[in-house]
Write a structure and sequence with these properties.
Two copies of one chain form a homodimer. The first copy, chain A, is 38% helix and 15% strand. By secondary structure, chain A is α/β, with parallel strands linked by helices. In chain A, the strands form five sheets. A seven-stranded mixed sheet of chain A has the order 2-10-9-8-7-3-6, sandwiched between helices. Chain A starts with 6 loop residues before the first helix and ends with a helix. At the A-B interface, helix 3, helix 5, helix 6, helix 9 and helix 10 of A face helix 3, helix 5, helix 6, helix 9 and helix 10 of B.
């Protein structure tokens, strides 16, 4: 008689966005005349840049001709894309990587969920609170998080690092010793970013304790301040303790196109075993490469035209972020984030709960955002707005808020 | 101090295709004047069909316009594709499925590797021998297979079902009781297929013992005989014990385009827990959907033009299979497969080992195939040729063999 992985049964419901969807739909049904503006979901809205579209069409045409048709891709990614990544994302910032330290995938969500496969079950994880739910949920599925304590909204065996106004939303080195440390910088959901010396302290801590850092840099393209690192490998010693994940979702609008990558330096070893070779084995056995045409689209992101066009898209979203920050501030709100990330994290007024503020915004101003408590207990009393809407809608939302 | 998943260290090297590559390259270097014909690898060679190319271009254009741009896809797949699958692959064969019993993915390799996530570690697996290596390797990574016994080329806790000439390459019900049974039909590498009553016996056995069947139907489109089932759900009771996986790789040439799906009927429950909901949770947490443009390409496979064109491609490959079968038979070889699958499984002559025959073919006839022993110990003394080459090369290879 077969048995299921009953760790799945311990998972609490993941109802954040479905609850939001139901509330919004009920409101729209009851108020068909109101124009609801959605600044809740972290999905992009601008179309793919022209250079990417051209590359996609060209690659599709290659697939139409036996002479240029591409069958199975290299499991770990085409060299043309890995070279472009090594050159533009790393060498240009003074970080030397070999192309076989870069693994192409269908996105950072898959990679951050799957990376746990190469680690033993009995590792203790540390995560920020609030946090992107995938890190914790996938470790729960692997049996690494203990029991879920409903009243605390926490897992018994996870080290949580509260990120609040008091510590400027930067995770603090915990008193307990973790084995695997998840860091997301610039951060989803708080929109804040660690400075280089803060990240260096994490690298030093990981090296001292023999911990591995899973570094999610999906929002790297939004960094605008000088002292925020673009890759963890800018920190001394990081190649010996850190895995970095990147995505094309937010820098080039690939949320529905699916492409990302993971960097595992060959220096990263656990008692002599190379994590690079473990991941290569995992990738080659449980994955069959990202589509050729999508990898060509990824390559186009690094062309001169592609860089220019995607930079303009990021500027468009960051202009929205600025409007939101300034609009909220002038309306008397306390706001964070939005400088190195497309997320604005605001303090709910008058001690309202995150959900009360959600209802207030929806019912009175017809604006949809995301309750901070949905990302973890330390998110209570906070609220997330995103810069991914259109300029017109963002402006209108701010007008409503200022009234 | 973090620890790795040391099950990975138990995995034997996976050197089959790299050993073949090295031998072939060395031969070509030493004999630059010889024309080597490759009938070894299971990759398609015909370009994508025109209907698919048209759909890809159209979807790319949609991504270029804000009004039609698509961001995050539904985790489980777009309804347009799931509906087409339910209608064409199942309803048309008398099998009723709901669209939320179909999960779109990036391919059957990923799905057959990842499906183990939803099962407990302490399940005993049964596999055919020879077998597609992904089933065993991914279970080894999960710690489900015991120790690797090098001299036997087997894992201590796996139930192997030898498929040989004696049983016409059909896996036989084992004396030990498995919890998870992997079946691939039509089969890679033997190219043979079970008849409906043979598959029904497996379903009956699974229901009796409380086992789950992981049914890989990636080669379904190549079935030409009436009494070979196209889906396991043609068997009575299969919805209560079987998960089915399909791929667009071989029926529509998507090896480099990446699309597949898994069917988990809602009736499939383990002590009241729906496997469909476990997989939905896994899929939604560790995966972010297949690319929109690729899902539109998948939809086009089911259009009238797409069906006609992909059918012609399959006929092209199956004509190659026929030429290989007949060519080998007239040259005095004993051949199997190639009627319901694009693989021909031949007995090596004069009791040669699979690798000796590989060397013989390469050196004397300049033909590359795959040694049967590479797929498992019961593959020793057999050899795989594929029908995925060009007609010209296939004809020439047969001419050489007949001489």
């Amino acid at each position: 008689m077969y048995r299921i992985n009953d760790n799945y049964l311990k998972l609490p419901g993941s109802y954040l966005f479905s609850t939001i969807g139901k509330k919004v739909n009920a409101f729209i049904e009851a108020n068909p005349d109101k124009k609801v503006i959605r600044l809740g979901i972290g999905d992009v809205t601008l179309p793919l840049a022209p250079a990417i579209i051209t590359a996609l069409h060209k690659a599709v045409d290659e697939m139409a001709d036996a002479a240029t048709f591409k069958g199975y891709a290299p499991d770990l990614g085409y060299e043309f894309l890995r070279s472009a990544i090594v050159k533009n994302d790393y060498a240009a910032r003074g970080v030397d990587l070999a192309i076989d330290e870069v693994f192409i995938s269908d996105g950072a969500k898959s990679d951050s969920g799957n990376i746990g496969d190469i680690f033993a079950k009995n590792n203790r994880i540390a995560v920020s609170d609030p946090v992107y739910p995938v890190y914790v949920d996938t470790n729960a599925m692997a049996g690494r998080t203990g029991e879920y304590q409903k009243e605390k909204e926490r897992w018994s065996d996870v080290i949580y690092m509260p990120c609040t106004e008091e510590n400027e939303f930067a995770p603090q080195i915990p008193s307990e010793t973790p084995d695997m440390i998840y860091l997301c910088c610039p951060n989803n959901p708080t929109g804040t970013a660690m400075k280089k010396e803060q990240l260096q302290a994490w690298v030093d801590f990981a090296l001292e304790k023999g911990a591995v850092i899973i570094y999610d840099a999906a929002y790297e393209a939004y960094i605008s301040e000088e002292d925020v690192p673009h890759t963890i490998y800018e920190c001394d010693g990081a190649k010996k303790c850190a895995i970095e994940m990147r995505s094309f979702s937010k820098n080039a609008g690939f949320t529905g196109t699916r492409l990302g990558f993971t960097v595992i330096p060959k220096e990263l070893k656990c008692e002599g075993v190379s994590l690079n070779s473990l991941w290569a084995r995992r990738h080659g056995t449980k994955f069959n490469g990202a589509p050729y045409i999508i990898q060509r689209a990824g390559e186009a992101v690094y062309s001169e035209e592609g860089k220019k066009q995607t930079k303009e898209q990021i500027a468009y979203y960051m202009n929205n972020a600025k409007l939101i920050r300034e609009g909220l501030a002038s309306a008397g709100y306390t706001v964070f984030g939005g400088v190195n990330a497309p997320y604005i994290w605001l303090k709910t007024p008058d001690g309202m709960t995150s959900w009360d503020f959600f209802d207030y915004l929806l019912e009175n101003l017809n604006i949809v955002g995301t309750p901070g408590s949905g990302f973890g207990p330390s998110g209570e009393g906070y609220f997330r707005l995103t810069a991914f809407g259109s300029l017109e809608n963002t402006k209108e939302a701010m007008e409503r808020l200022k009234k």
